[in-house]
Amino acid sequence: MIEKCLIEHCAPTLASLKAANLFNACCEEGENINLQIIMWNQLMNPKGVKLLALRSRGNRSLVYVYREKQLAQNLNRPGVARFLEKYGYENTEPEQCLALLKKRFEASEDFPHEIGIFLDYPLGDVIGFIQNGGQNYKCSGCWKVYCNECEALKMFQKYHKCREVYRNLWAKGRSVLQLTVAA
Fold first, then answer.
1. Cβ–Cβ < 8 Å for 176, 7
2. Alpha-helix residue ranges (DSSP H) falling in the chain
3. What is the spatial distance between Cα 153 and Cα 137, in angstroms, rounded to a whole number?
4. CA 5, CA 14: separation in Å to the nearest integer?
5. Are 33 and 61 in contact (CB under 8 A)?
6. How far apart are CA 55 and CA 63, in angstroms?
7. In this structure, are residues 79 and 123 in contact, taking their beta carbons and an 8 Å threshold?
8. Is residue 97 a contact partner of residue 114, using CB atoms and an 8 Å limit?
9. Comparing C-alpha atoms, which of 129, 125, 127 is closest to residue 147?
10. What is the rounded distance in angstroms from the CA atom of residue 104 to the CA atom of residue 140?
11. How many Å apart are CA 120 and CA 71, to the nearest integer?
């Protein structure tokens, strides 16, 4: 179940083009998503990829798939620490930031607005989304764009092509582990 979600929703992270992706996992009766996440972490951690359930409700979990080194770089981009501070983040250490992000997800049905930073979206677009309430964007694709439309469109195309390549290779028998670029 997770394997298909990783291909469909996380190919850019598996290919090391993007720091992180997110997907909803739905378990059948008797399945345990936490056990699946543990298993996938054992397989993927050596390649630099980690999985974390940000929120679980019943048989559904919101799974965050990320590359810790790339996330650390994103959290240390100019202006990000100051931005995150407004939401209670005391530093930019990935483990501590993810612990707080998980608490914020568990405390609310909504998505914390700062999630864009953790998904490798440009800071200007995350701020633009918050200030505009998700309206008045220049274009949208993987995220709503408020700043550099041309650059965002190039990234959307790159991510789309990556997903298509990964889907095709997976359909031809390549495993997620084979398709995951080692960091």
1. yes
2. 2-14, 33-44, 68-75, 80-85, 94-106, 115-118, 123-132, 149-171, 176-179
3. 13
4. 12
5. yes
6. 8
7. yes
8. no
9. 125
10. 25
11. 8
| Tokens coding 117 | 């930073």
Strand locations in the chain (E): 20-26, 50-57, 60-66, 139-140, 144-145
pLDDT digits (tens, 9 = 90+) for 20-67: 999 999 877 657 788 899 999 999 999 999 999 999 887 789 999 999
List, for residues 98-149, the tens digit of each pLDDT value: 999 999 999 988 899 899 999 999 999 999 999 999 999 999 999 999 999 9
Query: What is the rounded end-to-end Cα distance, in angstroms, of the chain?
Result: 24
Instruction: Write down how long the chain is.
Output: 183
Coil, helix or strand at residue 175: coil
Residue pair 7/172 in contact by the 8 Å Cβ criterion: no
Q: Which amino acid is it at 101?
A: L
Report whether 172 contacts 36 (CB < 8 A): no
In one-letter notation, the amino acid at residue 63 is V
Residue 111: closest CA among 137, 89, 94, 129: 129
The structure tokens 């530093």 sit at 91
DSSP 8-state symbol, 143: S
> Do 69 and 18 contact (CB within 8 A), yes or no?
no
